[in-house]
Specification:
Strand order of the largest sheet: 2-1-5-6-7-4-3
Protein name: Pyridoxamine 5'-phosphate oxidase family protein
Number of domains: 2
Number of strands: 7
CATH superfamily of the largest domain: Electron Transport, Fmn-binding Protein, Chain A
Mean pLDDT: 93
Shape: globular
Distance between the termini: 46 Å
Helix content: 25-40%
CATH architecture of the largest domain: Roll
Number of helices: 8
Low-confidence stretches: none
InterPro entries: Pyridox_Oxase_FMN-dep, Pyridox_Oxase_N, Split_barrel_FMN-bd
Organism: Bradyrhizobium hipponense
Largest sheet: 7 strands, antiparallel
Radius of gyration: 19 Å
Order of helices and strands: HHHEEEEHEEHEHHH
Length: 200
């Protein structure tokens, strides 16, 4: 197998059309705002001081990420595993973040890039109560680029197809981690889901 070098890329891929270049916008317009306000799920990507990259899922009620202006997003952080890889990267690393927003039923996705900072301002946290509790922190994104991706990837994957994989084909995440690490006690999927509902 031969790795592709930079010079090979031009031979493998034609230049993007002017429209593809132009659709990268410097701010959130009405279409991007509406998409974000319909989105219950996104993926947050950050980069660390050592060049490593982290991508983690984020979700909430529809519109859980707040559009505070054409160049500002506010994303509340909910309880998780407390590794805080993403937030360490924001605070200690480059500060650059990218968010990829999904809306169930729509094949297109929206990418938003910019620079992130963290806030634990009590008034801001109190304004973002969801699932009966305030967030621990809020990611404030100074938006620099907004870009709609075409729907080909989601169409190929049939992500929104009604044909769902049954959860029972995989052990619970606790059973997986117990097998991998021998830590904790294995728990069934029913027990895990019941606990999740109290921790949202």
């Amino acid at each position: 197998m031969t790795d592709v070098c930079p010079e090979d890329l031009a031979a493998l891929y034609p230049k993007p059309s002017p429209r593809v270049i132009a659709k990268a916008r410097p701010a959130i317009d009405a279409h991007a705002k509406r998409f974000i306000e319909m989105s219950p799920f996104c993926v947050l990507a950050t980069s660390g001081t050592d060049g490593s990259v982290d991508a983690s899922p984020r979700g909430g009620n529809i519109g859980f990420v707040h559009v505070a202006g054409p160049n500002q997003l506010l994303m509340p952080d909910r309880s998780g595993n407390n590794r805080i890889d993403s937030f360490r990267n924001v605070v200690e690393g480059s500060g650059f973040v990218h968010l990829l927003f999904f809306v169930p039923g729509i094949d297109e996705t929206l990418r938003v890039g910019g620079r992130g900072t963290l806030s634990a301002d009590p008034d801001l946290l109190a304004s973002m109560v969801e699932f009966g509790k305030p967030p621990r922190a809020v990611l404030n994104v100074a938006v620099r680029e907004v870009y709609f991706h075409c729907g080909k990837a989601l169409m190929r994957s049939k992500l929104w197809s009604p044909d769902k994989v049954q959860r029972s084909v995989m052990p619970s995440i606790v059973e997986i981690i117990h097998e991998q690490t021998s830590l904790g006690e294995p728990e069934s999927q029913d027990v895990v889901e019941a606990r999740y509902k109290t921790q949202l």
